[in-house]
Amino acid sequence: MMKPKSIAAAFASCFLIISLLCSCISGDQNETNYEGLSYNYYEKTCPRLEEIVRSSISPMFALDPTAPAALLRLMFHDCQVQGCDASILIEPSGDQQFTELDSAKNFGIRKRELIGSIKTSLEVECPQQVSCSDLIILAAREAVALTGGPLIAVPLGRKDSLSTPSKHMADSELPPSTADVDSILNLFAGIDMTIEESVAIMGSHSIGVTHCNNVLSRFDNENATSANMDPRFQTFLRVVCPEFSPTSKTAEATFVPNDQTSLIFDTAYYDDSIAGRGNLRIDSEIGVDPRTRPFVEAFAADQDRFFNAFSSAFVKLSSYKVLTGNNGVVRSVCDKVD
């Protein structure tokens, strides 16, 4: 039988272990991390921030069901070029030519004005506090949650850039529509993502559409066309996206849904990938490549696992090359440099 002192010591040890475990689990939500960002950054300076963002965005989603995909894409394209700094919102000034918005890879970027509208509301509530770059991340977070995906806890505190990258930089850093598994894994490895997280972040294609100019470029490469493509689906794509030039106005104006439930953030994208119904080369190839297929199958079978991996990947992408402290500014108007 244990003596009273031994029992007390045992309880004390157990309490210490439990306390340490709890602090590890909850610490990410309270301490500064990810390049100087913090989960409670606006707790005192703008406590209603997330409520205001959500109330601003929800009505827009009801009016335009395609808005969530547009906001998620806006975040991706901002973060992948020069980091998450809201440079994609800046309108070119008179002496600037060929900025990142002029890149063909930024074709179809929308809802930039919605970020500006939210910023205007926040300037009344808490002036000169909330950055446009944080608003892009929060809007994308809401886009995922309001379409059925997870509500992701994201660290905040980004600052805005004072310049917009060149068209050349956007051309070189944004992946092409013909990207394969190797290039996508290399891209996301540069953001410290695992293969599982890389496959999960591709699940952003669960919502939205693919424009025919990007689908047609796939047919230029017969090997890329035939890799894991259901012949019936290939016929469908060729009917919806006839053989116009990929740069024609018709090809730019027509589109196909990303998956069978393109307004809902779910695992249907992975079901389609396995079945050879991917719009883009990467959508099809991740379903057969031995490095990525196990995760595609796992996500198709387990939505919770997909949501967890996607959330982790989302935080990593949204924390990429951020500006913090005195390295950036808080713009008062998102589309102009003060």
From TrEMBL:
Keywords: Calcium, Disulfide bond, Heme, Hydrogen peroxide, Iron, Metal-binding, Oxidoreductase, Peroxidase, Secreted, Signal
CDD domains: secretory_peroxidase (cd00693)
Cofactor(s) essential for the protein: Ca(2+); heme b
One Pfam family cited in the UniProt record for this chain: peroxidase
Signal peptide (from-to): 1-27
Domain Plant heme peroxidase family profile: 36-338
Catalytic activity as recorded in UniProt: 2 a phenolic donor + H2O2 = 2 a phenolic radical donor + 2 H2O
Cellular location(s): Secreted
Catalytic EC class: oxidoreductase
Keyword set includes Signal: yes
Entry's cofactor comment: Binds 2 calcium ions per subunit.
EC number: 1.11.1.7
Similarity comment: family membership: Belongs to the peroxidase family. Classical plant (class III) peroxidase subfamily.
Function: Removal of H(2)O(2), oxidation of toxic reductants, biosynthesis and degradation of lignin, suberization, auxin catabolism, response to environmental stresses such as wounding, pathogen attack and oxidative stress.
Name of the featured protein: Peroxidase
Species for this entry: Brassica rapa subsp. trilocularis
